[in-house]
Amino acid sequence: MTVTCCIRYVIDPFQLGAFEAYARAWSRIIPACGGDLLGYFLPHEGTNNIALALISFDSLAAYETYRARIKADPAGLANFRFAQDKRFILEETRAFLTPVEAPAVVSASRRR
């Protein structure tokens, strides 16, 4: 069973560039530590202080192994310190999700 960790960040909208640098750094670190990074998503329109990250794992046990690796990884530790020093993350919450098995859906752009 695949499990996706959805991380919801409340960020300082005046430090969007710092958060983007933080997210870009994870794009190399997360896969190296065992996560399947689906992406980081920055605010675009509407609310200007909410960002998301989606990372998938084969199981919750795989997530726990990943967490141990990322906390010991030098690049991961440096990125955590960067966020603490710059203080652009005001709040961080996690939800663990599983996909809904459904027939293939045709996107709106293909219906035209």
Walk me through this protein's architecture:
The protein has 112 residues and is an alpha+beta fold. Helices cover 38% and strands 29% of the residues. Helix 1 runs antiparallel to helix 3. The model has no long low-confidence stretch (mean pLDDT 93).
Structural class determined from secondary elements: alpha+beta
Counted beta strands: 4
Q: How would a crystallographer describe the biggest sheet?
A: 4 strands, antiparallel
* SSE pattern, N- to C-terminal: EHEEHHE
Outline of this structure?
Helix content is 38%, strand content 29%. With 112 residues, it is α+β, with helices and mostly antiparallel strands. The chain has a 4-stranded antiparallel sheet.
Entry keywords:
about 110 residues, alpha+beta, 3 helices, 4 strands, globular
Write the topology of this structure:
Blueprint: E1 3-11, H1 16-32, E2 36-41, E3 50-57, H2 60-72, H3 74-86, E4 89-97
Antiparallel strand pairs: 1-3, 1-4, 2-3
Helix pairs in contact: 1-3
